[in-house]
Amino acid sequence: MVSDEGNGFNYKQLPDPSSEENIEKVSGRGLFIIKNLSDELKFEREGATLVMTFQITSKDIEVA
C-alpha cells in the first residue's frame, strides 16, 4: 500500500502511455508499470492510496 497526503486524482481516466500521442512523453509511466506488474491494483481515497497485490507462491521463492 502506498498513500499520499494529497487529494488524489481521477484514476478512471488515465492516459495510455503506449498510445501514439503519448509514446514520446517523459512522464505517465509509473501507474502503467505498476498495473502491469501487480496481480491486482486498487485505488482508495479518491486515488490518494494505491493497494497493490502480488501473488507469490513457494515455487517463486528460491532458497539458497
Given the structure, what is the number of helices? 1
Widest sheet: strand order? 1-3-2
Radius of gyration: 15 Å
Number of domains: 1
Helix content: 10-25%
Q: Tell me the strand percentage band.
A: 15-25%
**Which spans have pLDDT < 50 for at least 5 consecutive residues?**
none
Helical/strand content category: alpha+beta
Number of strands: 3
Average pLDDT: 92
User: What pattern of helices and strands is seen along the backbone?
Assistant: EHEE
Shape field: flat
Distance between termini? 29 Å
| Sheet of most strands | 3 strands, antiparallel
Structure described in brief:
The chain has 64 residues and is an alpha+beta fold. 12% of the residues lie in helices and 19% in strands. It contains one helix and three strands.
What topology does this entry show?
Layout: E1 2-3, H1 30-37, E2 40-44, E3 49-53
Task: Give a description of the structure.
A hairpin with a 4-residue loop joins strand 2 and strand 3. The model has no long low-confidence stretch (mean pLDDT 92). This protein has one helix and three strands. It has a three-stranded antiparallel beta sheet, with no helix packed on it. The protein has 64 residues and is an alpha+beta fold. The chain has one domain (2-60).
Protein traits:
flat; 1 helix; three-stranded antiparallel β-sheet; 64 residues; alpha+beta
